[in-house]
């Protein structure tokens, strides 16, 4: 079976969030199951493309409305990723030093059209086209209804929703940018009088998955306007929990860490990483270290962080360290908090993130929306106790310590009071050294690798080929 993933992000080439981690790992694990699984993504102007070599395997022009754009398909020459990586280079539109901007309609349409134009030239077509999020959401529609892609219409398409908040809306005035299609089908593109790329994909893909079972159920109640559509299409929808890449996230081999460790020397290993963090960020190593890593946006509860942190620091003997960036107001409010038992790194830093997962005692995730969440799985793997709101994938992966087989701190709802209370509970748990240390070894052994979920995807593909 030959699967082609089409995505705007893929780790380590371009990563904004969890989408990249998933697309960079899932194909590797699908290969282990005997399938051929490769990735197509845009060619961006970044560190990775600058420092790796690519060979041109195809070039042509695409029509975007009345304009023509030159594009190339570039294949990564090394096999460092464990799968083939193809990048679509549309120099005038995609080749930028950013992944997303405020107006990406033409950019990602060009990406999708160029990908399909190139697919037309394949002698042997893929068995499955797997699209991810709204940036590739018009592919199932174009494959079914654009005259030009008639020969692709029998290839099953799968859409995975990593985040339904962003939907790729644009005005019907831009419909002419989509390659000519049977106009009776224009309704499939529409949602609430706009073209909605995610809605079109939900309507046209053969199967729709979300990145956790709970997120699928939550979207049927609240999906930024698409809840009725998801209820209507529920027969073809399924939630499959994301996994994590155990080759990248491995405490024994992770080259980014200050000290590597396993379950047998977890305490000394974590202490060495914590020591480095405390020195770097002027924190007291004796206090339990709470951390946050991620985008500073409302979905993550970030607007409440300044208040939560001030209150939690006043009520408990703890330290807090935050790594992230996002809304400027939140960044400024966080930067203004006195640097006493508290520090921040405003920005993106992959190496620091790894050290933080290893050196922290608790990872905070007071998300209001969390489709799957990878951070809690990385933290478990690195022996850091997650403190999470019971939502989406967090609900599916963290059990509260007061429940049978529990290992994390779970709160219900995101308010300053509820999160602060959860931090206090965590601090109390930390003071029971024996129980706390035993738990670290246990959480490191929880298997959230892609093995199980990759198989679930392959089963799903097979059901479409029968
Ligand atoms: P989302 O995709 O909603 O941002 P996920 O939990 O699914 O959230 O994935 C976030 C990924 O991005 C994780 O790998 C996390 O470690 C990483 N990440 C987020 N912000 C930063 C940052 N500022 N520096 C380094 N890594 C980050």
Overview of the molecule:
By secondary structure, the protein is an alpha/beta fold. It folds into two domains: 2-243 and 451-465, Glycogen Phosphorylase B (Rossmann fold, 3-Layer(aba) Sandwich), CATH 3.40.50; 263-444, Rossmann fold, CATH 3.40.50. 35% of the residues lie in helices and 20% in strands. The strands form three sheets. It has a nine-stranded mixed β-sheet, sandwiched between helices. Strands 15-14-13-16-17-18 form a six-stranded parallel β-sheet. Strands 8-10-9 form a three-stranded antiparallel β-sheet. β16 (362-365), α12 and β17 (385-389) form a beta-alpha-beta unit. The protein starts with a strand and ends with a helix. Bound molecules: adenosine-5'-diphosphate. The site of adenosine-5'-diphosphate (ADP) has 17 residues, from α1, β13, β14 and α11. Residues 17-18, 21, 293-295, 323-325, 348-350, 353, 372-375 line the site of adenosine-5'-diphosphate.
Q: Quickly count the domains.
A: 2
The helix/strand class is alpha/beta
CATH C-level name of the largest domain: Alpha Beta
Instruction: Give the number of helices.
Output: 16
Kindly report the name of the CATH homologous superfamily of the largest domain.
Answer: Glycogen Phosphorylase B
Unique bound compounds: adenosine-5'-diphosphate
Strand content: 15-25%
Count of β-strands? 18
């Amino acid at each position: 079976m030959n699967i082609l993933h089409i995505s705007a992000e893929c780790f380590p080439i371009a990563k904004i969030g969890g989408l990249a981690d998933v697309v960079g790992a899932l194909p590797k694990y699908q290969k282990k199951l005997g399938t051929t699984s490769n990735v197509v993504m845009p060619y961006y102007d970044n560190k990775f493309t600058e420092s790796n070599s690519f060979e041109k395997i195809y070039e042509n022009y695409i029509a975007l409305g009345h304009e023509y754009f030159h594009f190339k398909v570039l294949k990564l020459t090394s096999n460092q990723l464990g799968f083939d990586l193809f990048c679509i280079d549309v120099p005038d539109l995609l080749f930028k030093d950013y992944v997303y901007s405020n107006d990406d309609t033409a950019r990602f349409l060009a990406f999708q059209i160029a990908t399909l134009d190139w697919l037309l030239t394949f002698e042997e077509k893929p068995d499955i086209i797997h699209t991810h999020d709204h940036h590739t959401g018009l592919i199932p529609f174009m494959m079914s209804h654009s005259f030009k892609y008639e020969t692709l219409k029998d290839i099953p398409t799968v859409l995975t929703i990593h985040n339904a908040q962003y939907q790729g809306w644009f005005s019907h005035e831009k419909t002419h940018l989509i390659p000519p299609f049977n106009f009776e089908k224009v309704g499939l593109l529409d949602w609430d009088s706009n073209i909605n790329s995610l809605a079109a994909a939900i309507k046209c893909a053969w199967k729709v998955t979300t990145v956790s079972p709970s997120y699928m159920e939550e979207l049927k109640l609240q999906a930024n306007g698409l809840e009725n559509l998801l209820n209507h299409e529920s027969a073809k929808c399924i939630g499959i929990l994301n996994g994590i890449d155990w080759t990248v996230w491995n405490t024994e081999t992770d080259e980014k860490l200050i000290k590597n460790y396993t379950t047998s020397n977890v305490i000394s290993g974590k202490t060495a990483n914590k020591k480095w963090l405390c020195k770097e960020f002027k924190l007291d190593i004796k206090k339990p270290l709470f951390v946050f890593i991620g985008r500073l946006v409302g979905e993550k509860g970030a607007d409440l962080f300044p208040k939560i942190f001030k209150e939690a620091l006043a009520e408990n003997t703890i330290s807090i360290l935050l790594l992230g960036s996002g809304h400027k107001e939140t960044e400024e409010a966080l930067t203004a908090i006195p640097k006493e038992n508290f520090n921040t790194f405003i920005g993106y830093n992959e190496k620091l993130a790894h050290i933080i997962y290893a050196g922290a005692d608790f990872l905070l995730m007071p998300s209001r929306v969390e489709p799957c969440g990878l951070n809690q799985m990385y933290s478990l793997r690195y022996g850091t106790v997650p403190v999470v709101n019971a939502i989406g994938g967090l609900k599916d992966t963290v059990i509260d310590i007061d429940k049978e087989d529990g290992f994390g701190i779970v709160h219900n709802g995101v308010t300053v009071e509820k999160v602060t209370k959860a931090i206090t509970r965590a601090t109390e748990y930390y003071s029971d050294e024996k129980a706390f240390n035993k738990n670290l070894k246990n959480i490191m052994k929880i298997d959230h690798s892609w093995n199980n979920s990759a198989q679930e995807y392959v089963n799903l593909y097979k059901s479409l080929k029968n």
